[in-house]
Design goal:
Aminotransferase class I/II-fold pyridoxal phosphate-dependent enzyme; seven-stranded mixed sheet; pyridoxal phosphate binding; binds pyridoxal-5'-phosphate; 13 helices; alpha/beta; aminotransferase; PyrdxlP-dep_Trfase_major
Length: 374
């Protein structure tokens, strides 16, 4: 199999652990193992006694039960655990897409959602664009239906979206599932940022609405536990899960036992962890809003309703790629330019989930002043 480079990961490969001021991260603030274990009496001792043998390919049954409990009426059997969300996407797309198939992906999107389609010979891929209406990011369901063909097998969506922050309302979730049902199309719903509803409207998991939908979840983003590398697919479509599990035999085989243990602790305190992440984002947003109010001639701010990321428009007369390069070279401030997403237009991604955002934002402002943009 030949597959194109993952642009975002290549970019992060250079800067994520070298740039001191991270202003574009999509995962929320993490914590130490000790901090997590301290959330539960007796967890530290149990962790030290965790057996380090192979684990079950489908995932620890207790973990699967906890994951199922996040959904409306899912059970342990509806859950397949992976080594991160990335492995789940790669496995699902590989088993679903074959020569002659057509897939549609919401766009922009996390690259792996559509890159497998690009790598399968004769597999066609269409982009369902999230568009900038001059004020905010919007989607058009008529445009989605117009893209559907007789051989459309999968529609891949990501909401809350990386990088735009666009998030379906519960009404739109039902509308999308109805479209897929009507055309009998599989729905891949990347919901890795779910749980970070800032507008107070708790979003439904899509797999609860449509049996041919898989919902993708993960410990990395809303829970801030990316180092655990634990993700999952949940669906009532067991035929698909059976195919994906066979593909997993060629990937990780099974998950890490310590990570599964720690994920169980985290999910037993799910509400507390989600609240922690939301509070960090909300505090950061107060500063970010002030920042954008100060510089309306430099940026067009795109507000978000959910999640940790936003995709703003650069109004400075300079390619955004150059602007972001200058920011990281001069001040060590990391932003993500739209060319990473193969997007037209001058946009850059900002991330609000880290505790270091106030300091990074101050450095970004220093950069604007020193480079005489203001
Ligand atoms: C939308 C989306 N899906 C999936 C992933 C992969 O998540 P993980 O790193 O936990 O495998 C990411 C990571 O950035 C993402 O943004």
């Amino acid at each position: 199999m030949k597959i194109n480079d993952f642009k975002l990961e290549c970019y992060f490969g250079i800067y994520e652990f070298t740039a001191p001021y991270l202003l574009t991260q999509s995962d929320c603030e993490s914590m130490s193992t000790r901090e997590l274990l301290d959330m539960e009496k007796g967890a530290e001792e149990a962790y030290l006694n965790q057996w380090l043998g192979y684990t079950e390919t489908w995932g620890d049954p207790e973990l699967r039960e906890l994951i199922a409990g996040l959904y409306k009426d899912m059970t342990t059997e509806d859950v397949l655990v992976f080594h991160g969300a990335q492995e789940a996407i790669f496995g699902y797309m590989n088993v679903m897409l074959n020569e002659g198939d057509h897939m549609i992906a919401m766009y922009p999107n996390y690259q792996s959602a559509y890159e497998v389609a690009n790598s399968v010979p004769n597999c066609e891929f269409s982009k369902w664009y999230i568009k900038d209406d001059g004020e905010k990011w919007v989607v058009d369901f008529d445009a989605l239906e117009a893209l559907i063909k007789p051989n459309t097998k999968v529609i891949a969506v990501n909401s809350p979206n990386n990088p735009t922050g666009y998030t379906f309302t519960n009404e739109e979730i039902k509308q999308l599932c109805d479209i897929c049902k009507k055309h009998d199309i599989y729905l891949f719903s990347d919901e890795v940022y779910k749980g970070l509803e800032l507008d107070g409207e708790k979003r439904e998991w899509m797999a609860d609405y449509y049996h041919k939908c898989v919902s993708l979840g993960v410990m990395s983003k809303a829970y801030g536990l990316a180092g655990l590398r634990v993700g999952w697919l949940v669906t009532k479509d067991h035929e698909t899960l059976e195919k994906v599990v066979k593909f997993k035999h060629y990937m990780s085989i099974c998950d890490s036992a310590p990570s599964e243990f720690l994920s169980k602790v985290a999910l037993r305190h799910s509400d507390q962890l989600l609240e922690r992440s939301k509070n960090i984002i909300k505090d950061n947003l107060k500063l970010v809003d002030k920042f954008f109010d100060k510089y309306p001639n430099l940026f067009e701010k795109k507000a978000i309703t959910c999640g940790p990321v936003a995709f703003h428009k650069l109004l400075i007369d300079m390619p955004v790629k150059e602007f972001c390069q200058l920011a990281v070279d001069k001040k060590g401030v990391l932003l993500l330019p739209s060319d990473i997403y193969d997007m037209e237009g001058e946009y850059f991604r900002m991330g609000y989930g880290r505790k270091g955002v106030p300091e990074s934002l101050a450095k970004f402002e220093e950069f604007l002043i020193e480079e005489k943009f203001v």
